[in-house]
Amino acid sequence: MHDHAPAAGGIRSASHRRLLTISLTLTATIMIVQVVGAILTGSLALLADAAHMFTDASALVIALIAAAVAARPADDRRTFGYQRAEVFGALINAIILILLAGWVAFEAVGRLLNPGDTEVAGGLMLIVAVVGLVANAISMWLLSRAQRTSINVRGAYLEVMGDLIGSAMVIIAAIIIVTTGWMPADAIASMMIAVLIIPRAISLLREVFSVLSESAPAGTAVSDIRQHLLDYDGVVGVHDVHVWQLTRGAPVFSAHVSVEPALLADGRSTKLLNDLQSCLAHHFDVAHSTFQIEPAEQSDCEPHHA
Fold first, then answer.
1. Do 14-212 and 222-300 come out as alike in CATH topology?
2. Collapsed DSSP state (helix, strand, coil) of residue 241
3. What is the C-alpha to C-alpha distance for residues 162 and 44, in angstroms, rounded to an integer?
4. Residue 306: pLDDT band by 50, 70, 90 thresholds?
5. Which is nearest to 95 in space by CA: 25, 155, 167?
6. Most confidently predicted of 12-26, 163-177, 197-211
7. Eight-class DSSP state of 246
8. Please, which pLDDT band fits residue 176 given cuts at 50, 70 and 90?
9. N or C of the chain: less Cβ packing under 10 Å?
10. 14-212, superfamily in CATH?
11. What is the pLDDT of residues 114-167, one digit of tens each?
């Protein structure tokens, strides 16, 4: 007996693109505010956060383009469609993040080595940073649900989360400057923003490489799936199992299933195939599965792999 949870919905939905568009509008608006604020205050931290915002805006544009491309139907040449476009969009995001971190760190070190060359207007810096914090919080809330099922939305979500933390760092630096007049706080906040960027970029890169190397999705236990299939009446073996994903939330499964000869003789193979595919779709959220059903004696003559 098999109890199945409801299957997840489509992951390339128009609602995801709508959320990305709203987030892009917020990000671009706050980026302009921060650039103006950085010019008026002389704050590197605000400029770093604005540059991060620019990166996020670019990433969201990439995400929107990738989502639109991914929604295109499959054809005879690209039989799985264009869902991998999301993965390449996420790869570009990660590379941009790493380059940004290097630039921010370089500028911050320069200011720390020459602290007397910088004067920052802490009051205005604080106001701009608070506005950025609120906008980032709204964007993060909008993307929080969709990022669980789309690697590209997750990339945008991680960048907005970094912006949120970055804005908090800028606020702290601004408060220190306003209350104590200690200008190096601005450069230190910039350095901390750079440090925060790197782990996020590495995490995103790892997920991208996991998809491109066709590793089993995180949290997927192949042994559990195999045992689940073996529990069906008439199934005596499951081998040549392969599990990978086209992008986050789009796993693919294939396997050879050895069955008792009587099951084939009775014409029950079609029902078994439907049951197995339904099991994968509802119990393991694998919407695309391929099974080769074969008699047990044939399976015994084949070399088995996974």
1. no
2. strand
3. 17
4. low
5. 155
6. 163-177
7. S
8. very high
9. N
10. Cation efflux protein transmembrane domain (1.20.1510.10)
11. 876 678 889 999 999 999 899 888 888 877 777 776 666 776 777 778 778 888
CB neighbour class for 30 (10 Å; exposed up to 12, middle 13-18, buried from 19): buried
Query: Amino acid identity, residue 14?
Result: A
Among 25, 143, 2, 16, CA closest to 83: 16
Q: List the chain domain ranges.
A: 14-212, 222-300
The reported pLDDT for the residue numbered 115 is: 73
Q: Are 160 and 63 in contact (CB under 8 A)?
A: no
- In CATH, what is the architecture of 222-300? 2-Layer Sandwich (3.30)
Predicted confidence (pLDDT) at residue 285 exceeds the cutoff of 50? yes
For the record, the structure tokens of 89 come out as 């969009």
pTM: predicted TM-score of the whole model, two decimal places? 0.68
42: left (phi over 0), alpha (psi -120 to 50) or beta: left
Bridge partner residues of 239 (DSSP): 256
Helix-strand-coil split of the chain, %, nearest 5: 65, 10, 25
